[in-house]
Write a structure and sequence with these properties.
heterotrimer; A mainly alpha (387); B alpha/beta (452); C mainly alpha (319); A: 387 residues; mainly alpha; ABC transporter involved in vitamin B12 uptake, BtuC; three-stranded antiparallel β-sheet; 15 helices; globular; B: 452 residues; alpha/beta; Rossmann fold; 2 domains; six-stranded parallel β-sheet; three-stranded parallel β-sheet; 14 strands
Chain lengths: 387, 452, 319
């Protein structure tokens, strides 16, 4: 289709559109991009005066230690949810950048039963985790509905609405947990039970700090016995399987694909865009909300505004793209990100370099991945030209 | 796990420093008995004596190497909290030579604290410092899980058998900053750029305002101001809801100069933005003053810079690690005030423990402040108050001291809040718990503490 | 009169902060008019801020800082142009990649500069190199509208730029070409317009403007060198403002100053009695109003059948 001659040689670069994209090509391109990113990223290290070989050999060393690998899975756990959340909306070209806000709202909702518990209202203990799980999903889902509705009804740009909602949900957490706020741990409503609990711990509560009371032991997600991995990983695997099924085997998955190819075409095919986008965003927000559930029940046993500092929602965007919107791949790429984060920590510990180098590095890999997309759709060959 | 009283604390402090010094000089020492979690301070002194007074006749065993891990909440590249902690880390690494190895992870989100603590433990860290309030509960979890690792949490209140807390308190330096503000202000309007409405910040604002009141009060007594002038005093606070947002701090600082004609600006934000605003006004011919906060920021505004507050966490880390190395580590609540941790009589202005900043390279404190328009009596008072506070003879949070001042201002005796209620009666002194959980403003603040 | 000078000062603040948004928004308007979305503004602004302040300090000349910030960001946006125009890849993905990349390297090198390259001597130069407001005699003293005549040079320059951008886009041949490329590239191509070249130019200049905006924030508003982010979400607001302005440089002026005002108003309103209980929520006001304004604008755009350039976000190929 197009051939560009390399000056001074007998060769030319020929670019051809692939007529059939074989299934393994996207995976090969993803891996090649990541490797190219790692090699090019060496330039950043050279620029700040560090030997990239040293860096990579250190990363290589950590990548094979089992504790480090398990740690990487744990760090990746919330990102697994926020990235899987984006699979459906991104497939239909609905750019939900609000994973962060849906994550936070999920965390808020998951906290509700705990707040009731400390105020003296009991449920059977085994019910807490399932109820928190469901509330997180529902709340995240509802937080996702507003941008979906605005987009479907009036074509309001969803990127911006979801982005703005992220700040709003964070301020909501502030308002709830700030000293004097309704969910603050020093709220007199928690006086009896929470103070007794703290007393048992030997802790003397000092009011005036941000944050809710901690989640009681029975309402926390435990680790898988004998490992350093939280049992949330099992939930993530089940959800990935369900999501994969939805994408490939159901009408919903089919409609999402049709809309993703062409919104107008979908209209002619009789697909109700409003209904579809509402369903998809409910699922998407719900999954991100589950990330929030994991965030507070597996790691930080309470709700506090800093839950939003981690940027899981934003990391999810990169992961979802890297995984080419495949839910199973999301798990693997999140894990890769976990290793990257662990490596960044390691680099700080051993080489004392800035955390933001890791961010630049991620960006570079992401850029190459985007560029690599070209090779998914086109074949590039070197050919000999005859005069 | 009881609190350490000041007297005990000072004893322990000296003991710890001696241990540290012994370590630094000798490089080795006899291994101290293990499992002394509930030891008292007296025990510390005993150990100290054995180490210093009776050196072991046999050659000392090689110093065991320990690894200490630090979890930071922000980037070490800021100009505030994390930067200061990181300087402390570098200091102990230097101070203990090869004995202590340190590692750190910066910009750790709260939710990731537990996995990151565990990764430090997996790397062999035996002492972990977590330097943000939000790390409190994850640190407690980790302390329960790993009983053979020592945890130190900065700024929190939950402790465990192997988890202590530490904090270097700045309310006294803030008081001194306020004193200078009260002495130098011409408009009698003051502004504070504040991060979050939490007790730490509220306490600092209050102490700063008390300092202002003393400065103004002296001027009134000297006849420079009338009582009517004092009735016009206003202190305004703008909340950023962020520890770090330089552009927003700039806007907040500017809004207070423009709205209220404030001419002294203090701040709790991890950048020199507020000082830069003051410098900008100075360049434009308007006298607006500000401070350094947490690190030396004077280079950003040499004309507008008065003094500042600074914490040298290094001394605190040295103290804690010395306890650990001596084998007498125990769960404590360290709450360091001005003068603690350093040589109590000398060197404070170079930043020992919590201090107000005055570096020798800036020249003579008196000459410089006088050149900026701070009257001599105020400089003398500043130095006097500073010495008294370091020696523990005086504290700004004493009801008796304020009784006559607020009597004339408000008609009530004691420390009076902004609504006019007496909060600390004559004869009372604000205790640790009151200051830790303070949620009200003292007299003179224009707006109340925002509630959720 | 106290009230009048206060309004004056409020406006100066709003216009100064609004200029950050204005410069970035203008660049994005240009790029989107040609059919390419660039979501990487935040990252490019961070890079521009870094380059701007470091060059300005070393050359002791803010204008060189602005120039190099523009050029650096423009060069980085070549990646975006190449990905979206030549390789016809997903513009959103490419923009997000650029955002993360720019954020990372911008902050890394600022931190590196502070730790390795700069000492107190260099920091002392900051007051010398930064831009100060210039009050125009007489006009600057007028009540309220005096604010318009008491700004820094770059703020005036940004106003001129928005007029120039408007003039180019709507009153010149090349502007017509850019707009037609954004509306219907196939027709433009058939008419002999070089679609690829115009899109490249628009994206590169647009990206350069983001760098300029970052340098403006550094050199005219908050000049600081630290290894920590400084744009803190302002790039995303600039993208929102493009839609608010209906892709019109003159309306961008209005939107940018409105948002500059909202940002400042958060601090000015804190002192007012009725807002005292809800300060945490007050901080979300610019974001809530952005959503509301976007909705209103989108409804309006649907009704009047004006809106995004038809080919926005879609790659063009000749096949």
């Amino acid at each position: 289709m197009m051939a560009i001659r390399i000056p001074g040689t007998k060769y030319a670069v020929k670019v051809e559109k692939r007529l059939i994209v074989r299934r393994e090509i996207p995976a090969i391109v993803s891996i090649a991009s990541a490797i190219a990113g790692i090699l090019l990223g060496g330039l950043i290290f050279i620029a700040v005066g560090i030997s990239p070989i040293d860096v990579y050999s250190r990363i290589g060393r950590i990548a094979i230690s089992p504790t480090a690998l398990m740690g990487a899975i744990e760090i990746a756990l919330p990102i697994m949810f926020t990235s899987m959340a984006l699979v459906l909306p991104f497939r239909m070209a609905f750019y939900n950048i609000g994973g962060e806000g849906q994550f936070e709202v999920g965390a808020i909702a998951a906290m509700i039963p705990v707040i009731f518990y400390w105020s003296g209202m009991d449920l059977p203990q085994f019910l807490y985790l399932p109820i928190m799980f469901m509330l997180a999903f529902i709340a995240g889902g509802f937080w996702g509905l507003l941008p979906a509705f605005l987009r479907a009804k009036w074509r309001v740009n969803e990127i911006l609405v979801t982005l703005m909602l992220n700040t709003i949900s964070l301020q909501l957490i502030w308002w709830l947990t700030t000293p004097g706020g309704p969910w603050n741990e020093a709220n007199p409503a928690f006086k009896e039970r929470y103070l007794a609990y703290l007393k048992e711990l030997g802790v003397h509560l000092i009011p005036g700090f941000k944050g809710t009371p901690v989640i009681p032991e029975f309402a926390r997600l435990p680790r898988i016995p004998g490992t350093l991995v939280n049992s949330g990983i099992l939930v993530a695997i089940i959800i990935a399987a369900i999501l994969y099924f939805i994408c490939t085997k159901t009408l919903l998955g089919y409609e999402v694909r049709v809309v993703g190819d062409s919104e107008r075409g979908a209209m002619y095919a009789g697909i109700n865009y409003l209904k579809l986008v509402l369903i998809v965003m409910f699922i998407s927000g719900g999954l991100a909300g589950l990330g929030g559930f994991i965030g507070i029940t597996a790691f930080l046993p309470k709700l506090s505004p800093e839950i939003g500092v981690a940027g899981y929602g934003y990391a999810g965007i990169i992961v979802a793209w890297l995984a080419r919107l495949n839910p199973i791949a999301c798990l693997l790429v999140s894990f890769f990100f976990g290793i990257l984060t662990k490596s960044a920590d390691l680099l700080q510990q051993e080489l004392k370099i800035s955390r933001f180098i890791a961010v630049g590095f991620e960006g570079l890999i992401f850029i190459l991945l985007v560029l690599g997309d070209f090779f998914v759709h086109y074949k590039v060959r070197l050919i000999k030209v005859r005069r | 796990m009881g609190e350490v009283t000041r007297r005990d604390f000072l004893k322990g402090l000296i003991g710890g420093l001696v241990v540290g010094a012994a370590l630094g000089l000798g490089g080795g020492y006899a291994a101290a008995p293990k499992g002394v979690v509930t030891e008292t301070v007296t025990r510390t002194e005993t150990v100290t004596e054995t180490v210093t007074a009776s050196p072991s006749p046999s050659p000392p065993p090689p110093a065991k190497k320990i690894k200490a891990g630090f979890i930071y909440v922000g980037p070490i590249g800021d100009y505030g909290w994390t930067y200061a902690h990181n300087s402390g880390r570098l200091y102990v690494e230097k101070q203990f030579g090869g004995t202590v190895e340190t590692v750190y992870i910066e910009s750790v989100p709260e939710a990731e604290a537990l996995p990151k603590i565990e990764s430090l433990i997996a790397e062999g860290c035996k002492v972990i410092f977590t330097t943000s309030f939000g790390f409190m509960d994850p640190t407690l979890e980790a302390a329960k899980k790993y009983p053979d690792v020592w945890f130190w949490h900065c700024s929190g209140y939950k402790r465990w058998d192997n988890m202590g807390t530490y904090f270097a308190e700045l309310y006294q330096p803030y008081y001194l900053c306020g004193l200078v503000a009260g002495a130098i202000s011409q408009t009698l309007k003051f502004g504070y750029v504040a991060a979050y409405p939490i007790p730490e910040v509220v306490r600092h604002i209050n102490s700063w305002v008390l300092g202002i009141w003393e400065g103004l009060w002296r001027r009134y007594k000297r006849g420079d101001l009338s009582l009517d002038d004092l009735k016009k005093v206003e202190v305004h606070v703008k909340w950023l809801y962020s520890w770090y947002d330089p552009p927003a701090a700039t806007d907040a600082a500017r809004s207070m100069v423009e709205m209220y004609d404030a001419d002294v600006l203090a701040f709790t934000e991890d950048s020199p933005a507020t000082l830069q605003v003051a410098e900008e006004y100075q360049k434009a011919g308007k006298k607006v003053w500000s401070y350094s906060h947490y690190s030396n920021m004077r280079d950003y505004g040499p004309t507008a810079h008065l003094i500042g507050q600074l914490v040298d966490w290094g001394l605190m880390y040295e103290y804690i690690l010395a306890y650990y190395l001596a084998g007498v580590a125990r769960s404590m609540d360290l709450w360091w005030l001005m003068g603690d941790g350093g040589d109590i009589r000398e060197g404070w202005r170079k930043g020992k423990g919590a201090a107000f900043i005055w570096l020798d390279e800036w020249g003579d404190l008196k000459a410089e402040l006088a050149a900026k328009g701070v009257p001599d009596w105020a400089i003398d008072l500043l130095l006097k108050r500073e010495t008294l506070m370091k020696e523990r003879y005086w504290d700004p949070w004493s009801g008796s001291f304020w009784a006559p001042i607020f009597k004339e201002l408000t008609g009530k005796e004691g420390i009076v809040d902004r609504e006019g209620n007496v909060r600390i009666k004559p004869g009372e002194v604000a205790d640790h718990d009151l200051l830790w959980s303070i949620d009200w403003f003292v007299w003179g603040l224009a707006e109340p503490v925002p509630k959720g | 009169m106290v009230e009048l000078t206060m309004i004056n000062q409020f406006l100066i603040g709003a216009l100064t902060v609004g200029t950050i948004y204005l410069i970035a928004t203008l660049g994005e308007v240009l790029a989107e008019r040609s059919g390419i979305v660039n979501l990487g503004l935040e990252g490019l602004m961070e890079v521009g801020a870094t380059v701007g302040i470091i060059v300005a300090i070393f050359t002791e000349n803010p204008w060189l800082g602005f120039l190099t910030a523009f050029i650096t960001a423009a060069i980085i946006s070549v990646i975006h142009a190449f990905a979206c125009i030549t390789l016809k890849l997903n513009q959103f993905a490419s923009g997000l990649a650029l955002y993360i990349f720019g954020l990372g390297i911008g902050i890394t090198f600022r931190g590196y500069a502070r730790d390795v390259m700069l000492g107190p001597k260099e920091l002392m130069k900051i007051p010398k190199i930064r831009l100060y407001p210039v009050k125009i005699p007489l006009l600057g003293d007028l009540p309220v509208i005096g604010a318009l005549f008491s700004l820094n040079v770059m703020a005036y320059f940004a106003v001129i730029l928005s007029i120039v951008f408007w003039f180019i886009l709507f009153r010149t041949r090349i502007g017509l070409d850019i707009r037609s490329v954004g509306e219907n590239p196939a027709a433009a191509d058939a008419a002999g317009i070089n679609v690829f070249r115009l899109r490249y130019i628009a994206v590169i200049i647009g990206g350069g403007m983001a760098g300029l905006s970052g340098a403006y924030l550094m050199l005219a508003h908050t000049p600081q060198i630290m290894g920590a982010p400084i744009i803190l979400g302002r790039g995303w607001i600039a993208i929102a403002l493009v839609i608010f302005s209906f892709w019109n440089p003159l309306r961008a002026l209005l939107g940018a100053y409105l948002f500059g005002g909202l940002e400042i108003a958060y601090f000015w309103l804190q002192g007012i009695e009725i807002f005292k209980g809800v300060i945490p929520l007050l901080k979300a006001v610019p974001h809530v109003s952005a959503i509301i304004l976007l909705t209103i604008m989108s409804i309006e755009a649907l009704r009047r059948r004006i809106g995004a350039p038809e080919a926005l976000g879609k790659p063009y190929s000749r096949e």
